[in-house]
């Protein structure tokens, strides 16, 4: 990292992130370059954001042309782009409606507000039906709602007391959810694939049983697809693998392809719980961010990227498993699906993330001692093969 950037970070930025000593200057496709000219294969994708890789020309052209017409006018007024994006997204969901925001945490906040509105509509104010059940090891964001939904000391520590009305159960253990859901519960919120927690998918049979349980007890099933959604699992939403229908979904990250865009989808039956004044955001769904998201959908559809992720990831994951077997003392298991994969290590992933970076591959650590590989959805077979070669070389050193 050059001295000037280092000085500015030391002097003027709150020391809130622990970052490696490099500074990224530019990116194109699956690659980025630091300010010393070093090239990296970027399998972090800005934590699952850069669905089309860096500076995809079609995304850039869409944003550039929209920026010349209208950038922002707030939700005081309707704009065609927001309507278009909702219509385009509705092709991937059951019947329902969308509300836009700016991030994953905000999408989940909106889901939590929906949950409380539902609880109140079922039990009335006196009914005190406002508890949300989330999974152990979950990650739902760092707002007060998100933190309360995230039962992890590293997230909650220092910020207690947490928002009341949360309870936790074990992912993939339906009995534990049965126990947790009593008359005070209005919703269950889980990640379809736990991302920050270390790439732990909710199993298909568990999701189906959870769906039935939620319906039976009149509790909303809210799926956090912030990290695993928008094609990353090889389907548009990861829950599609299980063949269930949630009551609401939170999404963000890949949706904007690099712009802060978040959204919730709510099934028709519950969409009217929100009324004018229930919720709001100044920035959510600006014409500029919506045009970025539409560009993401255009390219995903035109280039058949989701099918490509499903196809190419199978070979890649198989090869990662073969590779992992060569290093049984280091790698415990390969977890994940599509382009959201974790190498579960027997030890801290952080030194390995550093070594991989020195060898030209950017990865992200996650819980469960995972080295997380999150290629852009545009990553080619050659780039996936290159990642295998770098992982192999790094582990063998
Ligand atoms: N939910 C999940 C599953 C996430 O992975 C994240 C971020 O990593 C969030 C919520 C929070 O999203 P954001 O960082 O955009 O607020």
Describe the structure.
The protein is α/β, with parallel strands linked by helices and 397 residues long. The chain has 14 helices and 17 strands. The chain has a 7-stranded mixed β-sheet, sandwiched between helices. A 4-stranded mixed β-sheet has the order 1-2-3-15. A hairpin with a 2-residue loop joins strand 13 and strand 14 (340-345). Helix 3 (57-69) runs antiparallel to helix 11, helix 4 (80-90) runs parallel beside helix 11 and helix 12 (305-326) runs parallel beside helix 14. It is globular. The two termini are 25 Å apart. The model has no long low-confidence stretch (mean pLDDT 98). Bound molecules: pyridoxal-5'-phosphate. Pyridoxal-5'-phosphate binds next to helix 5.
List the helices and strands and how they pair.
Blueprint: H1 3-12, E1 24-28, E2 31-34, E3 39-42, H2 45-48, H3 57-69, H4 80-90, E4 96-101, H5 104-123, E5 131-135, H6 144-148, H7 153-156, E6 166-169, H8 174-180, E7 185-191, E8 193-194, E9 200-201, H9 204-216, E10 220-224, E11 248-251, E12 262-267, H10 268-271, H11 287-302, H12 305-326, E13 331-337, E14 340-345, H13 350-358, E15 361-362, E16 364-366, E17 370-373, H14 381-396
Parallel strand pairs: 3-15, 5-6, 5-7, 7-10, 10-11
Antiparallel strand pairs: 1-2, 2-3, 4-12, 8-9, 11-12, 13-14, 14-17, 16-17
Helix pairs in contact: 3-11, 4-11, 12-14
* CATH topology-level fold name of the largest domain: Aspartate Aminotransferase, domain 2
State the helical fraction: 25-40%
Judging by the overall fold, what is the CATH architecture of the largest domain? 3-Layer(aba) Sandwich
Q: What value does the average pLDDT take?
A: 98
Structural class: alpha/beta
CATH superfamily grouping of the largest domain? Type I PLP-dependent aspartate aminotransferase-like (Major domain)
Strand order of the largest sheet: 4-12-11-10-7-5-6
Radius of gyration: 21 Å
């Amino acid at each position: 990292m050059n001295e000037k950037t280092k000085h500015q970070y030391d002097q003027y930025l709150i020391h809130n992130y622990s970052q490696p000593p490099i500074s990224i200057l530019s990116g194109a496709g699956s690659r980025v370059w630091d300010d010393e000219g070093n090239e990296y294969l970027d399998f972090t994708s800005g934590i699952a954001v850069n669905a089309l890789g860096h500076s995809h020309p079609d995304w850039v052209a869409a944003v550039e042309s929209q920026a010349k017409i209208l950038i922002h006018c707030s939700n005081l007024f309707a704009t065609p782009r927001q309507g278009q994006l909702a219509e385009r997204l509705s092709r991937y969901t059951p019947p329902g409606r969308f509300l836009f925001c700016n991030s994953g945490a905000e999408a989940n906040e909106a889901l939590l507000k929906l949950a409380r509105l539902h609880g109140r509509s079922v039990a009335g104010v006196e009914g005190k039906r406002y508890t949300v059940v989330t999974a152990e090891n979950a990650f739902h964001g760092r707002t007060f709602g998100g933190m309360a939904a995230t039962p992890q000391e590293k997230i909650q520590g220092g910020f207690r007391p947490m928002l009341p009305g949360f309870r936790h159960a074990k992912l993939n253990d339906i009995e534990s959810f049965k126990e947790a859901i009593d008359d005070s519960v209005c919703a269950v919120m889980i990640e379809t694939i736990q991302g920050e927690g270390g790439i732990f998918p909710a199993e298909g049979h568990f999701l189906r049983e959870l769906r039935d349980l939620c319906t039976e007890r009149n509790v909303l099933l809210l799926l956090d697809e912030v990290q695993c959604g928008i094609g990353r699992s090889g389907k548009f939403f990861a829950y599609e693998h299980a063949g269930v229908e949630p009551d609401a979904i939170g999404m963000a990250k890949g949706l904007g392809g690099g712009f802060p865009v978040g959204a919730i989808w709510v099934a028709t039956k519950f969409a009217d719980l929100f009324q004018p004044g229930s919720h709001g955001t100044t920035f959510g769904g600006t014409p500029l961010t919506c045009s970025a998201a539409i560009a993401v959908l255009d390219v995903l559809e035109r280039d058949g990227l989701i099918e490509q992720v499903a196809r190419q990831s199978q070979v890649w994951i198989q090869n990662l498993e073969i590779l992992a077997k060569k290093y049984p003392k280091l790698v415990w298991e390969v977890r994940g699906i599509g382009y959201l994969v974790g190498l579960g290590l027997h030890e801290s992933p952080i030194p390995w993330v550093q070594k991989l970076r020195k060898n030209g591959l950017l990865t992200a650590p996650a819980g469960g001692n995972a080295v997380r590989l999150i290629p852009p959805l545009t990553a080619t077979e050659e780039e996936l093969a290159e990642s295998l070669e770098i992982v192999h070389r790094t582990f063998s050193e």
